[in-house]
Structures are given as C-alpha cells and as structure tokens.
Amino acid sequence: MLATDTIVALSTPVGESALAIIRLSGPLCSEIEMAICGRSKSLEPRRATLCKYIDVNGLEIDTGVYIAYPENASFTNEAMLEIMPHGNPLIIQKLLEDLITRGCRMAEPGEFTRRAFLNGKIDLSQAEAVADMIHARSNFSLEVARRQLNGSIGQKMSELTDQLLEILAELEAYIDFPEEDLPEASDAGPIHDLSRLIQQVNDLIETHHYSALLQEGIKTVIIGAPNAGKSSLINTLVGSQRAIVSDIPGTTRDFITSYIMLKDYRVEIIDTAGLHTAEDEIEQQGIKKTMELAQNADFYLVIVDHCQPSPSLPDSIQAEFNSKNTLVIENKIDLESKHSQKEFLADCQHCPISLKTHTGIDDFKEAMLKLIDQGIALPKGTDAIVLNARHTLALKQAKISLEKALEGVHSQELNELVSVELRSAIEGFSQVVGKIENDAMLDKLFQKFCIGK
Ligand SMILES: Nc1nc2c(ncn2[C@@H]2O[C@H](COP(=O)(O)OP(=O)(O)OP(=O)(O)O)[C@@H](O)[C@H]2O)c(=O)[nH]1
Ligand SMILES: [Mg+2]
Fold first, then answer.
1. Which of 235, 246, 275, 334 for mutating ligand 1's site (highest number of atoms within 8 Å of CB)?
2. 213 occurs within a structural domain
3. Fewer CB atoms inside 10 Å of the end CB: C or N, the chain?
C-alpha cells in the first residue's frame, strides 16, 4: 500500500554549490508541482523542464529544472518530483519551508529507499546496497555494492530456493514410492543435492568475512624487531611523517593506524611496537598489543633489518603467517650485510628494499597488490557476493535446517519433519531479500542512510 503522506528532502550536501536537488515522494507531488511552477497542467512526465519556483505567497524564489515521475514509474514507485534549484543554502531553506507549508514533511534518513522497498520496487539486499554504494571507500567495495544493487543476492537466493524446491519434489517422489532406496551422497539424488546445497550456503556464509574488509579496509599489520624500520615503512606508504622514526630501539610503543589506497583496495596499515623481550613496562604493554593485533589481521608485512641476524618471532604470531597473507620485507639493503634472511619465513615472498634510498618500493607494492588480488580479494566462485551480518544470520539458520533435513533423509526418515526443515530453509533464503515483519529492525537498517536517499 502506498504511503499517504508526502516526504521531502535535500538530496545533495548542505552548502553552496552550482545546483542542488530537492526530492519529493508521495500523493501531493502533482498538486504541488503545478502550484510552484504556476502551471495549470502537469509537467510532461520524466522530462527535464525549466520552470520558476513560486511560493505560497505568490513570490518568485528561483528558477530551476524540474522532473516529475508518475506513480509506478519512479524510484519509490510513488509519484515523485525532483527540483534542481541553484545551490544556495538560503534558497534551499526557503524552498523546504514552502514545501512543508504546502503539506510535505521532512523525510527520515533512507526513507525514499525504504518506500522503494516497501512498495516492492527493490528487495532488502538491494536497499542495503544503496547505502553501501554511497559509503563505499574503495573501487573494490563499489563494485560489490553495484552488483548487489543490480540484485545479485536476490538472484542467488532464488537459485538456492529453486534447487531446494527440486529436492523437495524428489523427496516427495520417494515418499510416494517407499520401496525405492535413496541413492547415497556420492550418487545423484536428494542426499547428493542436499549436501551440495549446504556447501553452497556455507560458501556464501564465509563471504561475510569480506564485509569488514570492504568497510574497514584490508587490515595490514607491520611486524618486526625494534629498529627494523617499521615506522619508516608506514611513513613511506602513507607519504607523510605519520610515525616517529629514530635509531633508538623501542621508539614506537603504541600502535599507529593509517589508511592508503592500493589500486582498488583500501588498506589499513598498522605500525606496531617492535617484538623483543622488553624490560620497560610500557613497552611490554605495546608488545602485548602487537600480539593481539597480529591475531586479527588480514595481511602481514614482516620487516627485518637485512644487516642483523634473522629475528625469532613468538610461535603464536608465526602461526598466522603464510605465503598468501605475508610479505617479508628485507630492509636497509643500502648497507652491507654479513647475514642472509633466506631461511627466515622461507615459504613467504621476500622483498629487498631500502627505505632510506627508496629502492625496491614499487616492486614491493606490486608484490603486495598481487597477493591481495590472489588471496585476500573475493573468492571467484561467489560472483563477488558479500553478505552482511543480517544476511549471514538468516543463512546460518537456513543451514541448520538443511543439516537437520539431511540427517533425516540419511536415516530414511522421509516424513513431515524433513519437509518442515526444508521449508524453514526457504524461509531463511527469503529473509535475506526482505521478508522482515519487524518494523524496529527496518528502522535500524534505514537509520544508516543519508537523508534524501
Ligand atoms: N640505512 C638505513 N637506515 C634505515 C632504513 N630504514 C630505516 N632506517 C633507520 O633505522 C632506524 C629505525 O627506524 P624506525 O623506522 O624507527 O624503526 P622501527 O622498526 O619503527 O623501530 P621501533 O619503533 O623502535 O620498533 C632509524 O634510524 C631509521 O632512519 C634503511 O633503509 N636504511
Ligand atoms: Mg617504530
């Protein structure tokens, strides 16, 4: 059912600009449009038209471009009007006040998108993608949001639902002919299909891991002994003196975070306190923090001074490193060395650099980008779908139901219970794209939006 009130909002940022966009959605659009343009008939739909803006007192305030969208042919599916006046905050203020006098009310954050969802124009995962698209901070997250806005998650959910319906039909055939034995998981048949479906659901749940990665960036921790050049490395990557560099070991005691763009990726770089056996209590706390950060990172830059013997790092940290998520940076190659770092984390790629002479930096960045592209970026099989916490919760519940159903089928319990579990899994899939009866949950979701979207 369409809303009975008409909402209005400024969709562009507040401040001076060449033009601004004011949006209206709701039943008053047509009446208001004729009144403010001083016309006796409606604007031609979906056509840009230059008109005056005349307020309730008959005063001309501005001239701007108008686009009117009829019901069923707009973003919200309601009648909509877009006004593009000059971007002067005084004009905007006058226009908004006038539109409120004429019966509109100011829109809540995300209310246009909420109406688009409630009116069946987009599913919930697409509505969420609108916010992701606006807030994306890297090309990579933009691409994922764009696919989601095009309905990639909805498509995946309907694929899963179709597969499940086929399995249900297959199982019903066995219920009708109980003398037939069910083929085992390795064969074709419902057990095989159900196991495969669970695997697909699981792969999708796993993509939730990338959600934080898209929002926050790829969490990259610089690890190394004191004086190896960790702070020099973050400064070089960021391109400014973010951290203090000195030849006194133990200079960095607290961790320091900065963000850089590495081609399409947003990367969070964290400089840490050098790992060694410290006497100083503050330094000890810094080292403890380094250990904690190292447990939760996506990527590691382990930096060694190539003139020093290879450091020994705590086992708990070493266990996190592998050839996909770690680069070993051999720093200070401008100096002569008697030591070789070849055996240190031998499985991981080594990048010889000098942060002093700026040698090898481009090769190192390229190596890092390649590893991120191959290992950290999205798994190819899921078509760049990344699930958020809400989707994941619904799919986890669906997975539990599918597993219970599989157990039932295995033990030849082809009864009501199995089909109840399968139906509840379908319910889980549909929740991902928007079967939410709870208004409070919708409020929470749309609060993240900008006003005017
Ligand atoms: N010769 C040479 N010296 C370097 C190079 N990179 C860093 N240094 C020097 O090494 C010293 C330590 O550098 P930092 O970047 O402070 O090292 P760190 O790993 O952050 O040290 P802590 O914070 O104490 O753990 C400084 O005197 C730097 O100028 C390099 O490539 N060559
Ligand atoms: Mg430092």
1. 246
2. no
3. N
